[in-house]
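User: Predict structure, ligand iron/sulfur cluster.
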Amino acid sequence: MSAPKKLFIKTYGCQMNVYDSERMAEALEGYEQTQSPDDADMILLNTCHIREKAAEKVYSELGRYKVLKDAKPDLKIGVAGCVAQAEGQEIMRRQPLVDLVVGPQSYHRLPEMEARTHNGAKVVDTDFPEEDKFEHLKARPKAKRGPSAFLTVQEGCDKFCAFCVVPYTRGAEVSRPVDRILTEARDLVERGVREITLLGQNVNAYHGASSQGEQSLAQLIWALDKVDGLERIRFTTSHPNDMTDELIEAHGTCDKLMPYLHLPVQSGSDHILKRMNRSHTRDSYIRLIERIREARPDILLSGDFIVGFPEESDQDFADTMDLIREVNYGQAYSFKYSPRPGTPAAERGEVDAAVADARLQELQALIAHQQKTIQDSMVGREVDVLFEKPGRDAGQMMGKSGYLHAVHVADCTAQRGDIRKVLITESQRNSLAGRLV
Ligand code: SF4
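Assistant: Predicted complex:
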């Protein structure tokens, strides 16, 4: 039997790409992963189109591999993900060292595409095929997994926010059938997983087929709640308009659903929300948060914010700051607006860069203050921690609370995968410390 070839995957962007990279690595038979491109037989860039100049960054990364390809002409280089979808054939034209380009909906065709490159073919597949790529990706080998895993249940988005490329690069919303998700979840649990984060670009719009008809995300969560050995369920990323009553109720009644919710709002100004085509208002978002907190008073909220969106005035920005004060976030991602080619907002004028920079700083300082205050309030509380890996110091273990805080325990007797009660004794810069109860 010949030695396995080496596969180097570089993953950009979101958790969904992390999951896709795992599945692609498993689908490419005859390869094992390496952490360095230098000894790879195949390099795969799994790209993301969300950040500024994403395509240019991919081209410059590809340029760095020329020296490797010159030294090893059999080296295969592939581009996957949203930049592959958006650029397609253009990647081959601009960077001839690339052998294959595969869009996010065609990953199940990757093994066949890779085989074709051995005959010297250059292969591009950015179709949106009818078949379910996850179903056709090879079943995972029964290798052990860490305690926490991602599981993609939904892809694509029908919302068309004015700044976002997802509806163009990932296509319309598609949900995986319930039974396939349950089968994959049980398999993950058998391999050591205790916590599953359900992923989707618009995950709470999930509507998967099942023998009892179409099921919502809340119904899927309740089905997962019955999986023995699965202790924690999370989901991300959600749109406020898809937070249904039953999903809110699940936050109050399903013990396995963790008290953490990432619910992007993007802006606190109705004028800007309208220009963003967000289809919710500041008030509807605030009312929604109130209902979620009624169901689960201790829930930790996380958000996404874009500052400097076209036409954002001082008053619009002040409205966003007010909303942040009102909601009180435990965590948030914030970005300065930058146009994405092909999106409606890209055609509009931009806010002065220095003004946008100053707003971003002000917003991030407020979020950091809220985050630290909430983190500090955990001191003295007992929380359940899922232990994931050894910490930096000898005898120390690191895990996550239900609120997604990193927790370090010194002289820890808990093992990887254990869920144990921890008394929080200290709030550090970005994590908590405590001792087993
Ligand atoms: S809901 Fe999210 S993924 Fe969909 S268009 Fe808006 S920002 Fe993009």
